[in-house]
Target: Protein TUNICAMYCIN INDUCED 1
Amino acid sequence: MGRRVLVSVGALFLILFTIVPSSTALFSSPEANPPSPKAISDLKETIVKRLGFQSNEVKISGFDVRDALVGHALSYEFDLEIDNKVHPFKLLEDVNRWEYVDLPIFQVEQPIGSMDENGLVPMRNKKKSSDVIPVLAPFQLAGPMELWIQDADNMRLSLPYDVDAGVLKKVILADGAVVTVKGARSVSLRHPIDLPLPLNQSSNEFASGILSLAQQLRRTSSDQETPLLSLRIVGPSSLASTSQSPDNKLKLKRLAPGLVELSSMSKGKSSLSAIDGATTTTVLTPREFTTMWPITSINGSNHNLLGLEKLLTSVLGPKAQEKGSFKVLKANVAAQTFMKIGFGVEKKLKEADLNSLNFPEWRTKPETMKWHFEVLAKVDGEKVIPENVMQVDPIPLEDTIAQNVISGNVTMSKLPIIQPTPSPFTL
Model:
């Protein structure tokens, strides 16, 4: 009987040992080869090519989506044409806050057995991607101009009370109409525009050059039958009158399905220019000194606006004070999602590589070289586009040299004998 019990216990133990894998295999397998979605794999290949390495000569480690940080910031893109030469500019704001976010492109199927010692899948506490969709801060737009609405089937229109205008594709703002745009993901220029020079044509020497250009453009647009400025707005949630008073509300006029015109019921006309003989001088009111058309929510002392004016002045050079014009081919401001992730590169060194590194003779020559990088990438739909790749040094290296190497490996017998100065107190 005792022998039968031992055989039964041994068989049960063998079955359990065969079915249940060991804890070492559960832990080491996912850590050695963490799952990588296609977007991250494409990002890895793009970065390796940008760094000048061949995929078959280096070993890439990292790119673990569990350690990826996600943040939001504004990106500015401008294309200026000056003297038949195009100058592209791309500016990125600093990300104020980095978080762990569960983006759809990070989601991969966990392999069987990808658990830690406690039997749990090793994942961080992440936010849902639906809660962190980046949008622009609310801003005000003033007419005359036209707005082309994209990806906004459920947009709300408030003038100041909610109005059911159906699905809007195009909104014309008449001169004097001002609306507040909320929930927009990006704003871009639909058609190129010409801007006059010199940069500052205002009679006031303290007026900003950008504000002077804006008022020149507004005056030109007011003299035309159709709006000169045309913007594309992606994904706005609402267009609302800036004034909540019923006496100063906007009037809506339906022109076609999906096309409306907004005009102000109490439009106050003000003279923007004074003509003296053949000379035209731009006259700015006190409000126009501090706001910029068509984005009236931007203050004239805004640091981004002042930085843009310095950049424009440096690009134009002496031409900024000469009579003429330049063209804005492209202008786009968007709220973008950025990702920051670290990775390592390991490469086997050849003799030519060792000679170029200039290692000292006493130092042991390494067989491989390791680099650590950090990539800042833009998340665009299902793609991850690298913006900046920076090399980092997580652990500073310090060389330790033995004392005999410093002294040239000289024995004590070859050192000179130095007699100390005799002292009368010495016995």
DSSP finds eight helices and 22 strands in the chain. Residues 199 and 424 are 88 Å apart (CA to CA). The two ends are 95 Å apart (CA to CA).
